[in-house]
Amino acid sequence: DPVPKRLPAKAVAYAGAGGFLATAAFAGAGAAAQMPLVLGSFGASCLLVFAYPASPFSQPRNVIGGHFTATLTGLAVMAVCGAHWWSMALGVALAVMLMLLLRVPHPPAGSNPLIVMLGAAGWDFLWTPTLFGSLILVGVALFFNNLGDGRKYPLYW
After folding, report:
1. How many angstroms separate the CA atoms of 52 and 4, rounded?
2. What is the spatial distance between Cα 89 and Cα 92, in angstroms, rounded to a whole number?
3. d(Cα 100, Cα 46) in Å, to the nearest integer?
4. Sign (positive/negative) of CA torsion 83, 89, 94, 95?
5. Residue 114 neighbours by CB under 8 Å, 6+ apart
6. Using one digit for the tens of pLDDT, what is the confidence trace for 52-72?
7. What is the chain's percent helix, strand, coil content, to nearest 5?
8. CB burial class (10 A; 0-12, 13-18, 19+) of residue 157?
9. pTM of the entire predicted model
């Protein structure tokens, strides 16, 4: 199959600007409040939300619900099994399955159980950075992705 066409330059610039604004918002808010609001997988979320806002993976329920579900899964598996190579694999597998069952798949969130276990995160990680950071990211997307004619975000909740 041929490689998909490159996005138009305007869409590329728009996606970069959206990623910049969202990251500035959650990272800046975290710095100002002296609380962690940055999650590594948010960078990949920015790519989806700002470059492909019509994708099912980019909708608010998927971004917020996917990150929350995957982080909660990682924390639960780590609490029961500890952080081992096999529990990381189990955490990712369960997170993928739960996101699909709950109809909130968000590919970047699939890495959250690994992030949780590699960082030995505590239960507060579910709230900061996961929930509050993803809410900020979606908040910026709601504003930014509706600027200009013909733009509509989200497609559904």
Report:
1. 13
2. 5
3. 21
4. positive
5. 74, 88, 91, 92
6. 999 999 999 999 999 999 999
7. 70, 0, 30
8. exposed
9. 0.96
